[in-house]
Design goal:
Helix content is 40%, strand content 15%. The protein is α/β, with parallel strands linked by helices. The longest helix has 22 residues. The radius of gyration is 29 Å and the shape is elongated. The C terminus is likely disordered. The structure holds adenosine-5'-diphosphate (ADP) and magnesium ion. Adenosine-5'-diphosphate binds next to helix 3. The site of magnesium ion has 4 residues, from helix 3.
Length: 576
Amino acid sequence: MTSFADLGLSSDILRAIADMGFEEPSPIQVLAIPPLLAGKDIVGQAQTGTGKTAAFGIPLLERLPPRQTRPRALVLCPTRELAIQVAEELGRLAAYKRGVRVLPVYGGQSLERQFQALERGAQIIAGTPGRILDHLDRGSLSLDEAATVVLDEADEMLDMGFYDDIESILRRTPEGCQKVLFSATMPGPILELAKQFLPAPEILKVIPKILTVPSIEQTFYEVRPDQKLDALCRVLDAQGLRKGLVFCATKRGVDDVASHLQARGYLAEGLHGDLAQARRERVMGRFRAGTLEVLVATDVAARGIDVEDVEAVINYDIPHDVEDYVHRVGRTGRAGRGGKAFTFVAARDRYRLREIMRFTRARIEHSPLPTLHDVAALKTDRILEEARAVMEAGSLERYTSLMEDFMEKGATGMDMAAALLKILLRRDIGPDSRREVAGEDLRFSGPTQVPRGEDSRPAPPWAPPVSRPRGGRKPGPPGTRHSSPRVRLSFNVGSRLRVTPGDLLGAIAGETGISGRSIGAIEIHDNLSFVDVPGEQADEIVRIMNAAHIRGLRLSVRRAGDGLRTKRASGEKVPT
Ligand code: ADP
Ligand code: MG
C-alpha cells in the first residue's frame, strides 16, 4: 500500500493532507503524482470523486517556486462551482505553504473585482474557460510564466462548448508548459485535443469495475451537512439497529461522529488508522460480540472488518468512488441475510450519487427521513411484535398474577397497556434516557431554512410535561432528570488515559450486563470520571466494576463521596 509519504512529498504538504484527514492516496493519486512531480504531461481518466483535484494539485504546489507572484498554474474547470471547489481544495492543500494564493476566476463575478484580485497577484488560478480567455484578451492575465495548465473535467468542458476557448488558451501557454488533462470519459474530441496539445503524455486510467450489490435495500436521504448528526440518530432509532456500520470520509469525521453518538447515549466507537492496534482490536471485538451498537469507520479501517451480521451500513459521507460504495454496502447483507444501506446526500454530492447508480446499476431509492412520529410508530410496532411473541410463548402466569393486584384498583387492560408502552418508548427514545432529538419540523430538503434553536423544538408526544433541552450526557444535578433516583459513582480513570464516555458506558454495560440506556450523565476529568447509574443497581455495579480494567488499569469505583461535592460547592474547580 502506497502512503503519501512514500510519494516523496514535502512536510508542508504532508501536514496539510493530514489535516484534511486523507489516510492514503487514492488510486489516481498514486498513479498521477509521481509523473506530474517529474514534470510530465498526463492524460488521466478516472471517475468523479476519485480525488483528481489533489492528484494534480499536490504536484502543482510542490513545483511552485518560492516567492513567485505571477500566475504559475492554471486550472480550467467547466463550471463556476467546480472552479470554486478546486480553488478551495488547493487552498487547503497549500495551508502550510507560505504566501501561496489561489484565485478562482469565473463568469458572473464582477470583472472589476477580478482585475483587482489579479493585480494583487496569485500563483494559481482556477477558472472557467470563457472568463479566463476574456482576461487574457484584456491583458489582465498573462500565462507567460505558466508552468502547468490543467484541463479538469475535460469532457464536460467540451460538452459545454468550450473547445475553441480551450484551444486559444492552450496556444498562449509558453513552450514546455506542463499540460494535464483529466476526464471521466474519453470521446473523440478529447483525444483530438490531447493529440494536438499533449503529444506524448503518460496515459493513466482508473476505471471502477462494475459490481453489483443486488440483495441490499438501498436508500438515500437528502441531508444538509449540518443536519447529518440528527439524521443519523433518526435512522439509527427508526431502524432500531443493534449492529450498524457508519462510514465517514475522514478520521476526524469518525472521531466527531463517534463522540457525538456517545454523548447522545449510543454504544458507539470509532475505528481508524490512528488508533493503536490493540485498541482497534478491542473495538472490533466488541462490535463482533454485539456490545457495540454502532461502529463508525473510514473506508481504510473498515477493510479489516469481517463481521457477518451487520444489519445496515450508513454512508454518513457519500463514498469517494463507486468501488468504495460497493465495498461499504457489501459489509451488510452477508450470509444471505437481507441488509440495508442508507446514504446521506448533500446537494453538492448529487452528481456522485448519480455516478454510483450508473456504475453499480443499483436502485437507490430516495426517501424522506423518518420523522419522530415514524420513529415512535416503528418502535411501537417492534414492541408489540415482541409482546405478541411473548404471549404466544405462554407461561405468563407469574406476571398475570402480579398484574391482577393492580387491575383490581380500577385500571383497564387498555390503560395499562398504553401506560406500559409509554414507559417503554420513553425509556428508549424519550428525553429521559438518551439522545437529543431535533424537532418535528426539521426539513431535510427544499429551500426553507429551518430554525434550529432548541427552544423552538416541539416536544415529542412522550416527553414529560416539563422537558428541558438536553445537551447529551452532560452532568446535571443527580436525580432531577430521571424517574428512578441516580447514584453518582466515581471511577479512577479519566482523560489522561484517553478514556471516553463510550469507554465507560461500554465497560459498564459489557461487564454488568445492565443496559447502556439506563446509565445517565458521564463526566470525564483528568484522572477521574463520574457516572450516574440507577440507584438500585449502584452496589452491584460498584462490586463488579472494581474487578474490571480499563486501558490496562484496574478500576477503583466508589459512590462519589460528599467530600468532592463540598469541594466543588466551595468554588474549587474540578478540571474538565
Ligand atoms: P474528483 O475531482 O475526482 O471528482 P475530488 O478531487 O473532488 O474528486 O475529490 C473528491 C473528494 O475526495 C474531496 O472531498 C476530496 O477532499 C476527497 N479526497 C481526495 N483525495 C482523498 C484521499 N486520498 N483520501 C480521502 N479523501 C480524499
Ligand atoms: Mg474534480
